[in-house]
C-alpha cells in the first residue's frame, strides 16, 4: 500500500517530524512518501493561511497523487480536505479529522491541546466543520511565543504537559488530542506523564489512511463527494487545472 | 463612500449582472467599483472551486482594496470571507451572509432557492459556517442543466418561480433567498409572482456594506478577527504576500 | 423614506437618547418620527414588563404606523416583534435583532454588554427566539444599581468600558453589542477605548430599516408571517382592535 | 388545595370544556375555580393574539390569584407563562408545558395534533421556548375550516383521529399531545382508536398543578424567576399594576 | 391505585429512605410497595453499575409488577427505564426523569446537586438520553468521601446546602434537583435555607406516577415503545425471560 | 496483537459471519478470538434486549479479556460499550462506533441501512449516545420479515441494495453504514452496485481496534473513563464481580 503524506506548510523541518512519526506508525507493508509545500507559509495558523493552504494542498495532491492508494493532509485544521475528498479518487484524510475521530474511540469528550493561541479560531472552525463540537471539551493553548516551529515540542515539553493537566482540571475531557503537525511524536514521549490517552494526529492519520485502503473504500459517484463535472479553468497550477478540467494524468 | 465589489468568478457576464443590480441598490453617494477574477473558474459551484475561489478573493482584495471603505465578495458561498475579515482593515461582506441576515429580518426561516444542484453542498457548508442552520428552511434547486451562466435567470425564470412555490409548499419558509450571483436582479423581476419576500443577495450586500461603513465599524485589534502578525510567505501573488508579510501598500 | 421609531417604554428621556442617535445614523433622505409609550413601565427589564411591552408596542404601531415605510421597536429585547411582523404591512425591526445581525457581519461571536442584571433573562430569551445562541459569546452586565435610566451611560461610562474588556477576556467575542436603548450613542463615544467593533443598536436598527425599504421588501401573504384573518376582539385599544378585526385605517 | 384555571380567551364555551375536563382530572380534595378573559379574542391562534393573551393572562392572575395555591394558564401556547412565573408567588403551569412534559414520561418523542394551521407557528415557538424541540416529532393540523371553536372536537372527531394516525405514520412519535383548550376531554373519548397514549393537556395541567403544590414548591428569591423589584407603572389594569408596583392585595 | 417503587440498589437503608419520602408524597388513596435489589451493587454510581442496574431493574419489574398500576425505578440515572417502558404495560417512571421534568415547571434551567463526583458522568448521559441538556444549568457535586450511603444526607447536610448556593452563584439555575435516592427527603429539610425551589426526586416520581395513572395512560401498541414481539431467551432470570418470551404471568 | 471479538448475541451463526469478515479484515500479525454469548437473546434488537446485552457483554469481557490487547463488542448498537470502556484496561470498540467514525472519513453524512425496523429505536439512541446525530442522514430499514438471522444478507441481498439506492435518493448521505452484525461481509459483495462507499462495521471495528493498539493507547486514570474504585457486589457473574470488586484475574 502506498500513502502520500502532504505537508501544506513550507517548513521542511516540520515535514521531517511528520515523517519520523509516520514511519513509526505505519504497518510493515506500507510505503510512505512525503511532500512539502513549495508555496504558502512556514506554518499555517490563521484563517487566511488556511485558505491559502487549502489551495496549496489541492495543488500538491493534483501533482503527487498518481500511484498512491490514499493521502494525508498533514496540517491539523485539515486545509482543503472537503475539496480533496470530492476531487480525487483516493481516500484523503486530515490530521485533525484522524486525531479527533480516533480520540472518540477512547472517551466521550476530547480536549485539543496546542502550542499557540493563533491557531485556536481556525481549529474551532475545523471542529465545527466536522460537526464534532459536542465531543469537544475545550481547546487549550500556550500563550507564550516559541522559538522555532520545528522544535516547539522540545522547547515547550514541560509547559505542554502542564497544559494537559490544566485541560483535565478545567474541562471534562477523557482524552487529549495533541494538535498541530509540529507536535508529531510528542504523545509517545510524554504519555506516561498524563493520566488520559494522548492522541498523536500524525500516527492516527497514517493508521486511518491504511484502514480506509484495507476496507476497500471506493470513490463515490453519487452524494456530495462525487467528483464534479469537468469545467474550464484559468491561471491555476497545471496539475490542478488538469484535474478540474477532467484531463488529469494518472 | 467607496465600495469594492469582487466577483471571484472569471465570468465577465456575471460581473455585469452584479454591477447592474448593485448600482440600483446603492445609495446616492456611494461609489462602486467592480472587479472580475483573472484566475479560477467561470462559476464557483463545488467545494474545490470554493477552495480556489477563497484564495482568489484574497488576492483580489489585496490588490484592489486600497482606498475602499468596504468590500463585497460577490459569490453566494462567501469564499474567503473569514480570512478576508481577519486580514483587511475594511468591513468585508459576503453575498450569502448579507442575503441570509437580511432575510432573518423578514421572517423566522428562509429557504435558499438556486439553479443548480452542484451548488448545494457548498451552500449548506456556508450556512453552517455562519451558524444559521436553525434559520434555514431548506435548499431548493433546479435539477436540469442550463445554457449559460450569465443568462440562467432569463432562461429559467418560470422554472425558478415554480421552485419558489415548491419551497413554500414543502418547507416552513417565511422568506426566500435567491442564491448565486447569476440571479442578481431576479428578485425585482418576479417579486409579484411569489407570496413571500424575495431577497436579492447582491442588493442586500451593497446595502449591508453601506450600513457597516455608516456605523463606523472599526477593525478589531482583539478577538479572533484581529489581524494576524506578519509572517514570511513563498510563491504567493505579490499583493497578497505583501499583506501577509505586513508590508502592504495602501 | 419615512421610518417610525417606537419606544415601548414610558421614559421620554430614553426616547430623546434614541432620537439623537437615530438622527445621526439616518441617511439624508430619511424622515424619522419618534413615539413614547403612554402606558407600561419607564424601562422594560423583566419577562413581565416585556409581556406588557409587547402589547404596548402593538398598540403604538396600530396607532402610528399609517404613512410609514418601516418601523423600529426601540427596546433591546424586541417586545412584540414577531406579532408586529405578522400584523402590519411594513417591515418592523427590533433593536436586539438589528444589533445582533449587524454584529454577525463583523465577527463569529458577539458579546452582549448591558447595565443591569435584571435584563439578562429576557435578553437571553430574545437571543434564543432569534435562534442566534450559537453566535452569542456571553451576556455581561453591571451588578450595581444606577441612578437614572436616561443617564446610565454617563454615570457608568468607565464601568461599561471595563465590562467590555472583561467580556473580551472571559469569552471568545469578536464584537460587542451594547444592549438597551439607554446606551444609544454610547458606542460612538467609547469605540476608541475597546479593541473590537462596538455595535450601537439604535443606529443599526435605523440603517437596517432603511435597507429593508430600499430592497423593496413586500409583505408576505404566505408563510408564518402572512397577515392572519380578521377576528373579533373585546376590550382592546381601538387602533389595535381595528387591525385585528381587519378594519384598520391606513 | 385551591387551583385557579384561567382561560385567556374570551370564549365561555371553551371555559366550559376546560372546566368539565379539569373537574374529572382533579383529585378529591382539590377545589377548582375558572375564569374567562373579559378582553382579548375568542380564541388565541397567532403571535399577535398570543402577545395580547400574555398580558391578559397576567391581568387575570393579578386579579384572581389571591387565595389560590397554584394556577393554570389554560391556552396551549402558554401565553404569559414566563412572566407569571416570575411575578406571582404560586406555581403557575401552562397547558402546553403540562401536556408536553407529561408526554415525555410516555415516550421519547411526541407529536402535537391540532385543529388549525393558524396555530402552528405560535405552537412551534412555544415548544422552542420550553427547549423541547428535540422531543418534538412534528406538529400536525387540519387544513380545513371549522364551524365553532367550542364544538371543534365534536365536528372534527373522525378527522382528528385520522390525523393522529397520519402523525404516527409520518413521524417517529411515541405519544400524541392533543393541543388547544378546545380539545379538552377529547383524549378520553378517542383513546381506544389511537395506538399510542394521548395526552389531554387540561387534565395534565390540573394534575401537574396539584403535584407542584403537594411537593411544597416555594417561590424563588434567586435565579431568573425571583420576583422583580417594584417599579412604577402607567395605564395598566389596577390589579396588575399593584403587583408590579409591589403593593398587591393578597 | 397501586404503585411499585423499585430500588435497583442492594442497600436496604436507601430503600427505607425512599419509602419514608414516598409515603409522605403519596396521595391518600395510593398504595405503595417497595422492593430492594437482591443482586447488583449497594449504590449505583458508574456506567458499569448502571448497565448492571438496568438489567436488575428489568428483573425486578418482571417479578413484581403484576397487580400494579405504575412503577418507579428509584435510582437517579434511570437504569433500564427505556427498556422497561417498552416491555411492561404500566407507566414506568425514573427518578431523574421525574425530578427533571418537575423542575422544568419551576424554571428555565435546573442544576443537579449530588454528593459524589463518581455519579456525574452517568448523570450527564442520563440528561442527554432525556434530551434535556439545554435545560441543564450544571451538575454540582461534593468532592469528598462520605461514610455511609444511607446517611450521606445527615453527614453532609451543611456541605450540600453550601453546594446549592455555589450552584446558584456559578450557573444560571432557577431550580435545584437534589439527585440520588440517598437524598430522598432532604429537600423538605433544607428548603428554607436555599432561595430557589428544591426538587425531591422520590416525591416527584410518586406524584408523577400517580398523574400518569389518573390520566389513564394506556400502553402503546405503535411507536418505538410498543411492546416488542416475543423472542426466545437463554439463561435470563425466569420472570424476565417470561416477559421477553411473551409468556409472562400477570 | 491479540483482539477479542465478542458477539453478545447467542447466535453461533452470526458469530461465524463475524469471524469470516473479521479474518479478512485483520492485518497479517493479528490474532483474533471469537466468543458467543451463552445467555441473552439470539439477536439484540430492542432497548430491552440491549439492556440485557450490555450486561452480557460485560460478563463476557470480564471472563475472556485476559491476554488481549483490545476487544470488539460485535453488535451494532454497542451494548455495554461505555461501561466496558471504564472498567477494562484495554481499548474496547463497538461495531456502530467503528462503522460510523470510519464513515465520517468518507463523507459529511452517513445513512444507516439495516434489515429490520425493530432495530431503529435502539440504533437511533446509539447514534445519539455517540453525539453523531448531525452526521446522520437517516436510518433506512426493510419493513418485511426475514427467515433466519444468519442468512438475512443472502435472502435480502437485492432488497438491501434497493434500500441503499432509496437512502441516497431520499437523504443527503455520502456514505452508507451497513448496520448489524448479520450484515458482516455484505459490503464487499455489493459495493459495485451502490455508487457511494459502503462501510462494513465488523471489518471497520477490527481495523480500528488494531489502530488503537498500534497507537499505544493507554488506559485512563483520570477523566470519566478512569476505572472506578472497587465496590462490593451481590449475585453477579463471578468474573464480572471480580472486576468490579477489584480482585480480577488477568
Notable characteristics:
homohexamer, 250 residues, alpha/beta, Rossmann fold, four-stranded parallel beta sheet, 10 helices, 8 strands
Describe, in short, the structure shown.
The structure is a homohexamer of 250-residue chains. By secondary structure, the first copy, chain A, is α/β, with parallel strands linked by helices.
In terms of topology, how is this protein built?
Six copies of one chain form a homohexamer.
Chain A: E1 2-7, H1 12-25, E2 31-36, H2 47-64, E3 70-73, H3 81-87, E4 92-94, H4 95-104, E5 110-114, H5 120-129, E6 136-141, H6 152-155, H7 157-170, E7 175-178, H8 186-190, E8 198-200, H9 201-214, H10 238-245
Parallel strand pairs in A: 1-2, 1-3, 3-4, 5-6, 5-7, 7-8
Structural commentary:
- 6 copies of one chain form a homohexamer.
- In chain A, strand 5, helix 5 and strand 6 form a beta-alpha-beta unit.
- Helix content of chain A is 42%, strand content 15%.
- The first copy, chain A, starts with a strand and ends in a 5-residue tail after the last helix.
- With 250 residues, the first copy, chain A, is of the alpha/beta class.
- Chains in contact: A-B, A-F, B-C, C-D, D-E, E-F.
- Chain A binds chain B through residues 10, 37-42, 45-52, 54-55, 58, 80, 82-87, 118, 120-121, 125, 128-129, 224, 228-229, 231-236, 240, 244, and chain B through 10, 38-42, 45-52, 54-55, 58, 80, 82-87, 118, 120-121, 125, 128-129, 224, 228-229, 231-236, 240, 244.
Characterize the overall form of chain A: globular
Question: Strand pairing plus helix content of chain A: what structural class?
Answer: alpha/beta
- In the CATH scheme, the class of the largest domain in chain A would be Alpha Beta
Instruction: Please identify the oligomeric state.
Output: homohexamer
Main β-sheet description of chain A: 4 strands, parallel
Task: Report strand % of chain A.
Answer: 5-15%
User: Helicity level of chain A, as a percent range?
Assistant: 40-55%
Supply the CATH architecture of the largest domain in chain A: 3-Layer(aba) Sandwich
Question: Uncertain spans of chain A, ≥5 residues at pLDDT below 50?
Answer: none
List the domain count of chain A as a whole number: 2
Most extensive chain-chain interface: B-C, 53 and 53 residues
Q: From the 3D structure, determine the CATH topology of the largest domain in chain A.
A: Rossmann fold
Give the C-alpha Rg of chain A. Answer: 17 Å
Amino acid at each position: 500500500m502506498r500513502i502520500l503524506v502532504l505537508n501544506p506548510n513550507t517548513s521542511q523541518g516540520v515535514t521531517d517530524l511528520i515523517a519520523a512519526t509516520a514511519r513509526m506508525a505505519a504497518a510493515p507493508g506500507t510505503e510512505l512518501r512525503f511532500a512539502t509545500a513549495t508555496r504558502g507559509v512556514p506554518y499555517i495558523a490563521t484563517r487566511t493561511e488556511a485558505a491559502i493552504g487549502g489551495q496549496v494542498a489541492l495543488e500538491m495532491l493534483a501533482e503527487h497523487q498518481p500511484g498512491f492508494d490514499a493521502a494525508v493532509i498533514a496540517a491539523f485544521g485539515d486545509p482543503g480536505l472537503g475539496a480533496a475528498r470530492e476531487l480525487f479518487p483516493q481516500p484523503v484524510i486530515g490530521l485533525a479529522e484522524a486525531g479527533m475521530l480516533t480520540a472518540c474511540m477512547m472517551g466521550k469528550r476530547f480536549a485539543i491541546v496546542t502550542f499557540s493561541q493563533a491557531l485556536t479560531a481556525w481549529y474551532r472552525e475545523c471542529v465545527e466543520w466536522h460537526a464534532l463540537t459536542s465531543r469537544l471539551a475545550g481547546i487549550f493553548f500556550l500563550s507564550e511565543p516559541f522559538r522555532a516551529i520545528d522544535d516547539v515540542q522540545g522547547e515547550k515539553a514541560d509547559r505542554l504537559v502542564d497544559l494537559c493537566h490544566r485541560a483535565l482540571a478545567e474541562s471534562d475531557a477523557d482524552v487529549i488530542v495533541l494538535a498541530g503537525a509540529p507536535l508529531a511524536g510528542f504523545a509517545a514521549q510524554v504519555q506516561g506523564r498524563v493520566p488520559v490517552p494522548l492522541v498523536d494526529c500524525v500516527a492516527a492519520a497514517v493508521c486511518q489512511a491504511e484502514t480506509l485502503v484495507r476496507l476497500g473504500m471506493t470513490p463515490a459517484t453519487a452524494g456530495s463527494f462525487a467528483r464534479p463535472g469537468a469545467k474550464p479553468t484559468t491561471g491555476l497550477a497545471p496539475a490542478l487545472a488538469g484535474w478540474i478540467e477532467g484531463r488529469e494524468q494518472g
